[in-house]
């Protein structure tokens, strides 16, 4: 596991030296690109949705991935293509990894990790809780990122060492701060469930134990937005196993820059290994971690067990 909060300063220092020697962009400049891409993603999603014409027509474009309940739509694919094409213009030497398979190698040292729709099930059902997530990663660490809540028209973003903000439809930028809560009994906890049946059963078994120790639990359906909610103080803790790097690359940076403490799998680790990402409001790290561990919430749930 990689504790983003403890490595933050060393990553910032190392990246500063790297960009000076390689002529690379500053983290702030990369954030501007991430914001442009995330906003473009929202535009494409809305345009494509109108052109396809409603939930019934959208359902006809659905394919499945890891399981029969893990969907990908034509809108996911079109959005990813648009973002990758835009990156080819803005940052032609960078590598790209997209959730839906689009990508390319690069030689700049910067890799972009894209999730065109994080929360596809919500999108498919018309639930207004899905996002576009874009992160610039260097040497295994995110240095800039943006997460756009498409339906709420809120753009969360951060760059390494620069704090995190949320820009609303009024174009007012709010500086984000994780909550000061210290008592686990007062903590609102967010989580999510796997698309793999056996894994989600194990995840559900954790909840009865954990519910007795926290304020309440929420499952909203977009890991990227859950991390942004830790950053904004709308939830106090988020944990989930078996996420892939496109689910959390941007969100973990936004949460960290807002003062949260994030433990995440290495980016080389695939979600199939079942490792757990957890983000805490800073005052909850010492008190909440034992409760999560005792409930089994921090245990990896690898596919190889079944």
Sequence-ordered SSE layout with sheet pairings:
Elements: E1 2-3, H1 4-22, H2 27-52, H3 55-59, E2 63-64, E3 71-72, H4 74-90, E4 95-98, E5 103-104, E6 110-118, H5 120-125, E7 131-138, E8 141-149, E9 154-159, E10 164-167, E11 173-175, E12 188-191, H6 197-211, E13 216-218, H7 223-232, E14 237-241, H8 245-257, E15 261-264, E16 276-280, H9 285-295
Parallel strand pairs: 4-6, 12-13, 12-14
Antiparallel strand pairs: 1-15, 2-3, 4-5, 6-7, 7-8, 8-9, 9-10, 10-11, 14-16, 15-16
Helix pairs in contact: 2-4, 7-8
Task: Report a brief summary of the structure.
The protein is 40% helix and 24% strand. The protein is built from 9 helices and 16 strands.
Protein described:
The chain has 306 residues and is an alpha+beta fold. It has 9 helices and 16 strands. The protein has helices spanning 4-22, 27-52, 55-59, 74-90, 120-125, 197-211, 223-232, 245-257, 285-295; strands spanning 2-3, 63-64, 71-72, 95-98, 103-104, 110-118, 131-138, 141-149, 154-159, 164-167, 173-175, 188-191, 216-218, 237-241, 261-264, 276-280. The strands form 3 sheets. The chain has an 8-stranded mixed sheet with strand order 5-4-6-7-8-9-10-11. The protein has a 6-stranded mixed sheet with strand order 1-15-16-14-12-13, sandwiched between helices. A two-stranded antiparallel ribbon has the order 2-3. Strand 2 (63-64) and strand 3 form a beta hairpin. Helix 7 runs parallel beside helix 8 (245-257). The protein is globular. The model has no long low-confidence stretch (mean pLDDT 91).
């Amino acid at each position: 596991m990689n504790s983003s909060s403890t490595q933050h300063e060393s990553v910032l220092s190392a990246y500063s030296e790297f960009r000076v020697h390689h002529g690379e962009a500053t983290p702030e400049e990369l954030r501007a690109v991430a914001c442009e891409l995330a906003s473009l993603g929202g535009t494409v999603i809305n345009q494509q949705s109108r052109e396809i014409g409603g939930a019934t027509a959208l359902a006809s474009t659905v394919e499945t991935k890891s399981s029969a309940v893990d969907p990908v739509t034509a809108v996911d694919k079109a959005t990813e293509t648009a973002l990758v094409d835009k990156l080819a213009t803005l940052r032609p030497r960078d590598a790209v990894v997209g959730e839906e398979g689009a990508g390319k190698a690069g030689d700049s040292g910067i890799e972009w990790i894209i999730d065109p729709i994080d929360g596809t099930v919500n999108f498919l059902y018309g639930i207004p809780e899905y996002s576009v997530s874009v992160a610039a990663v260097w040497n295994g660490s995110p240095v800039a990122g943006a997460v756009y809540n498409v339906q709420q028209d809120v753009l969360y973003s951060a760059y390494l060492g620069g704090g995190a903000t949320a820009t609303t439809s009024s174009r007012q930028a709010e500086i984000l701060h994780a909550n000061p809560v210290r008592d686990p009994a007062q903590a609102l906890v967010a989580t999510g469930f796997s698309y793999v049946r056996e894994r989600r059963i194990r995840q559900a078994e954790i909840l009865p134990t954990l519910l007795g120790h926290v304020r309440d639990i929420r499952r909203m359906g977009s890991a990227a937005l859950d991390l942004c909610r830790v950053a904004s103080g709308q939830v106090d803790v988020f944990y989930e196993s078996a996420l892939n790097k496109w689910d959390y690359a941007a969100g973990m940076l936004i949460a960290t820059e807002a003062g949260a403490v994030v433990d995440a799998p290495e980016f080389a680790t695939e979600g199939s290994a079942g490792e757990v990402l957890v983000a805490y409001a800073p005052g909850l790290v010492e008190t909440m971690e034992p409760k999560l561990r005792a409930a089994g919430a921090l245990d990896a749930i690898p596919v190889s067990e079944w």
